[in-house]
């Protein structure tokens, strides 16, 4: 970094950093480090923590419920990441050459779920899915599909997709908006050239739009993958991980172990595994899809 | 504009599908609004049936019996200091990262970005015990202070990168005029940062308003619950009284929809600027 005209002595510079970083250290970074330490102990929240080394991690990886949680999380990624990405990019390709006003109106509607609290969305969808008087089943009966009117959140086979659809609904408008800005960034002469060459809309999409949208695809993947690993609110308010572990995810399991069973060491270990998983996937996306981030540091 | 003349029939069909999809997307909200003005008897006649007349008393019930008056006030009490303090601290820290040199710069930046990637779920247990040790469980401080701390990485990075876009000449001129740094920050940088600051404030407002985990774990006294939390416990008590339940949900999301509709251009511009950075 080149030295700025505003730069002063390092002692006085630190004054600008201290308030923010102190607060951050006390209530975010400190607890992160503490969680790491806690995950190496066995602790009931009352007596002194007992050092167990990697015992909690070893126990987790021989715990069938933890594997169920990981598998559910992987399946949910189809609904959190893949579907919103595919729908979002398709919509962006359809919407971008509409007139400005119409584009704005569509964007406004499709983006709306994204600004809502996921906990409240979970409660709303639990009502929509209600088997007895929920609008969803009433709609199915009204259009003559009554035999498909299921107790969605109580059905072992359908509960995961039912919860997943809510995540897709939540994210696809958001993905579309990011892709729309991406398309607007692309040099229009490329599209014109393709048109002159007589390329079909499909060819233009696969050979120009898609490759040039790689930075946006990376961003969308990063954000949705992180969201899927930290998913808690939506699942907690809709199913609490049930029925019979069908929607159990690591963070729900962490909550149960920690705040319901007082096994805080084991719960912290799950939290750390989740954070590590986020880093690994983050790193993989950066490596696979390339990055040209211009950092501040 | 790009192309507006003679839209072929295929596009018309495509637009029909797009609008249908947009309608389906907002249907849950429309149903919510419709159900919130029904009587219990109306609900039994079907989700899509219209009530004979609007039952606004559901809102009165939710507001009073559901303690939404308390939750709403709590949400306001939490969101204002969080947004104000986060923007202020983000300005100071962002200013440092944008213009100043200091020891461990790279390390500190890495530690800061760590906080953006690690979700609150990962450190909620130590945070809970820390707040308990400080005697802050069931206080407004439990809702406000960690929320500010959690927003510092984003505020810093968002404002620092906005500051780096400012023309260096303006700042150099001010330095040559002999102005002090804090003076320059206050009188030159801050006025130029108003658009970025208001976008940031908008984001922080939405995130803080929507926060679930922090109030869920750090507060168990009804007197300190915020709206999303109030909604959860409300759901437990009113599962059978659908109209009042949906009225409660409308109370939680109405301020969000209002804010979104007013600021939606700024919101989306900021989102894409922040996300693709």
Structural write-up:
Chain A: It is a multi-pass membrane protein. Chain A: InterPro entries: MetI-like, MetI-like_sf, UgpAE/MalFG_permease. Chain A: This is Sugar ABC transporter permease. The complex is a heterodimer of chains A (297) and B (277). Chain A has helices spanning 10-38, 55-60, 64-95, 100-111, 118-128, 135-142, 159-185, 188-196, 201-212, 214-229, 233-238, 250-260, 264-289, and strands at 41-42, 50-51. With 297 residues, chain A is mostly helical. Chain A has a two-stranded antiparallel sheet with strand order 1-2. Chain B is an all-alpha fold and 277 residues long. Chain B is built from 13 helices and no strands. Chain B is globular, with a radius of gyration of 24 Å. The model of chain B is unreliable at 1-6 (pLDDT under 50). The interface between A and B is large, with 101 and 106 residues.
Topology summary:
The complex is a heterodimer of chains A (297) and B (277).
Chain A: H1 10-38, E1 41-42, E2 50-51, H2 55-60, H3 64-95, H4 100-111, H5 118-128, H6 135-142, H7 159-185, H8 188-196, H9 201-212, H10 214-229, H11 233-238, H12 250-260, H13 264-289
Antiparallel strand pairs in A: 1-2
Helix pairs in contact in A: 3-7, 3-10, 4-7, 7-10, 10-13, 12-13
Chain B: H1 9-36, H2 40-44, H3 57-65, H4 68-99, H5 105-117, H6 120-133, H7 140-164, H8 168-176, H9 181-192, H10 194-210, H11 213-218, H12 227-237, H13 242-275
């Amino acid at each position: 970094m080149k030295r700025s005209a505003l730069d002063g002595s390092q002692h006085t510079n630190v004054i600008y950093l201290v308030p923010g970083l102190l607060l951050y250290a006390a209530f975010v970074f400190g607890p992160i480090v503490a969680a790491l330490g806690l995950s190496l102990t066995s602790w009931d929240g009352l007596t002194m923590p007992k050092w167990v080394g990697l015992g909690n991690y070893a126990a987790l990886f021989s715990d069938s419920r933890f594997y169920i949680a990981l598998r559910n999380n992987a399946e949910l990624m189809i609904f959190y990441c893949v579907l919103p990405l595919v729908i979002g990019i398709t919509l962006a390709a359809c919407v971008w050459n509409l007139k400005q006003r119409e584009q704005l109106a569509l964007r406004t509607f499709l983006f709306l779920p994204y600004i809502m609290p996921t906990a409240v969305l979970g409660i709303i969808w639990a009502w929509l899915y209600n088997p007895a008087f929920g609008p969803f089943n009433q709609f199915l009966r009204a259009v003559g599909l009554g035999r498909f009117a299921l107790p969605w959140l109580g059905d072992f086979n359908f509960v995961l997709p039912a919860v997943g659809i809510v995540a897709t609904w939540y994210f696809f408008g958001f993905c579309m908006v990011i892709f729309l800005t991406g398309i607007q960034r692309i040099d229009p002469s490329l599209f014109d050239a393709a048109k002159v060459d007589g390329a079909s809309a499909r060819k233009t999409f696969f050979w120009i739009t898609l490759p040039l949208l790689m930075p946006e695809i990376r961003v969308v993947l990063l954000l949705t993958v992180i969201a899927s690993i930290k998913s808690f609110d939506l699942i907690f308010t809709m199913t609490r991980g049930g029925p019979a572990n069908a929607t159990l995810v690591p963070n729900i399991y962490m909550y149960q172990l920690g705040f319901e069973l007082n096994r805080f060491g084991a719960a912290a270990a799950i939290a750390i595994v989740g954070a590590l998983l986020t880093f690994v996937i983050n790193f993989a996306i950066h490596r696979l899809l390339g990055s040209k981030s211009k950092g501040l540091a | 504009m790009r192309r507006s003349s003679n839209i072929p029939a295929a596009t018309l069909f495509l637009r029909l599908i797009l609008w249908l999809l947009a309608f389906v997307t907002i249907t849950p909200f429309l149903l919510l609004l419709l159900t919130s003005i029904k009587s219990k008897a109306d609900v039994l006649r079907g989700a899509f049936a219209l009530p004979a007349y609007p039952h606004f008393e559901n809102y009165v019930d939710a507001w009073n019996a559901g303690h939404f008056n308390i939750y709403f006030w709590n949400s306001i009490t939490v969101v204002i200091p969080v947004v104000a303090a986060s923007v202020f601290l983000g300005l100071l820290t962002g200013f440092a990262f944008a213009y100043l040199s200091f020891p461990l710069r790279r390390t500190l930046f890495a530690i800061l970005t760590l906080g953006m990637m690690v979700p609150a779920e990962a450190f909620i247990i130590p945070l809970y015990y820390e707040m308990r040790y400080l005697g802050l469980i069931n206080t407004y401080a439990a809702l406000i202070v960690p929320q500010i701390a959690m927003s510092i990485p984003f505020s810093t990075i968002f404002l620092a990168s906005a500051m780096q876009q400012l023309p260096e000449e303006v700042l150099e001129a001010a330095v040559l005029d002999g102005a002090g740094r804090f003076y320059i920050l206050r009188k030159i940088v801050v006025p130029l940062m108003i658009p970025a600051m208001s976008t940031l404030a908008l984001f922080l407002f939405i995130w803080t308003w929507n926060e679930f985990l922090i109030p869920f774990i750090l507060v168990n006294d009804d007197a300190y619950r915020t709206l999303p939390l109030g909604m959860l416990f409300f759901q437990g008590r009113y599962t059978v009284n659908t109209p009042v339940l949906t009225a409660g949900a409308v109370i939680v999301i109405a301020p969000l929809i209002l804010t979104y509709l007013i600021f939606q251009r700024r919101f989306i511009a900021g989102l894409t600027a922040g996300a693709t950075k």
